[in-house]
Amino acid sequence: MLSPLARLHLRPRTQLEHGSENRRLYAYLNSGMAVVTMVSPAALASNTHEVPRVPISFDELSESRLIAGKNAPGVLASTHVAEGSARTRISVHGVNASPEDLGPLLHLGAERGENTSTFAYDDRFRRLEHSAADLATGLAEWRAANPEQTLVIDAHSMGGRVVLAALAKIQDLDTFGPIELNLVAVPLAGYGSANWSKLTPGFLRDAIPVARPSLDMGSRSRFQKGLDRLVLPDNVRTTIYVAGKDDVVEGGDAHPTHIVKNLRAKVVHVPEAGHVSILSEVAGLLSTPAD
């Protein structure tokens, strides 16, 4: 019987087709973490660059072309510009996935008159720790350019781990103004089966897809220890969405008590949702007009 981590790695690279969750053989199991590098928005204010524009239906191939190479730094890319909007919605997909998976939430943002962006990154050959640092830099640059906007972050699966580690790296996060953080089907407790990944030879990590990011998936990894003690400032309002029929994130692994408490998070159970179909369900739950 496949473990939840194995199911995550066996997910197809193209997934959201009418809410179905097809599976195809992909490859590997693993996990571990590295030292946090703090990012200051003030230090980045004079180092901003033009944000690339991409369509909401931004697939795996387009993502790999944008980030320009294996294990290359991730970047924030704009998917919709709403002139005069006071809100920006940013999506972060998981491992063995692509930005288009969060299409339901990006479309929701565009329909509500929000600016929308996605974080494009190498989820197959770059560690979550390093992708988190890339995202932290992107968020700090975004804040420097948009000091008055409300930020909404939608993160799915392993993308939630990336987002939490990124927020931990931003020194002045409490100055960002309101942040709405939606963690959707996120394995917040990590995977016990991934704890052996640190024993994998480096040359295999470079060759096997998902092996390197899996270093930061272990339940006893340094990355996990960082999540276990993470406390976010009061301006971050966190909601954790749990899929009742999730075969990738099981039971309390999606909302361990100590992490829920540290994040002061609200937990919302979606009983009939699976690991991928929950994205459409959450978009429906959030579809009421913005305040």
Oligomer: single chain
First and last CA, distance = 46 Å
Number of strands: 7
Question: What string, H for helix and E for strand, traces the elements in order?
Answer: HHHEEHEHEHEHHEHEH
Q: How many domains would you count in the coordinates?
A: 1
Task: Please state roughly what percent of the residues sit in beta strands, choosing from under 5%, 5-15%, 15-25%, 25-35%, 35-45% or over 45%.
Answer: 15-25%
CATH class descriptor: Alpha Beta
Report the radius of gyration as a whole number of Å: 17 Å
**Could you report the average pLDDT, rounded to the nearest whole number?**
83
Classify the secondary structure makeup into a structural class.
alpha/beta
Low-pLDDT sequence parts: 13-48
Strand order of the largest sheet: 1-3-2-4-5-6-7
Task: Summarize the structure in words.
The protein is α/β, with parallel strands linked by helices. The chain has a single domain, classed as 3-Layer(aba) Sandwich (Rossmann fold), CATH 3.40.50. The chain is 29% helix and 15% strand. The chain has ten helices and seven strands. The chain has a seven-stranded mixed β-sheet, sandwiched between helices. Helix 9 (257-263) links the parallel strand 6 and strand 7 (266-270). The relative contact order is 0.18.
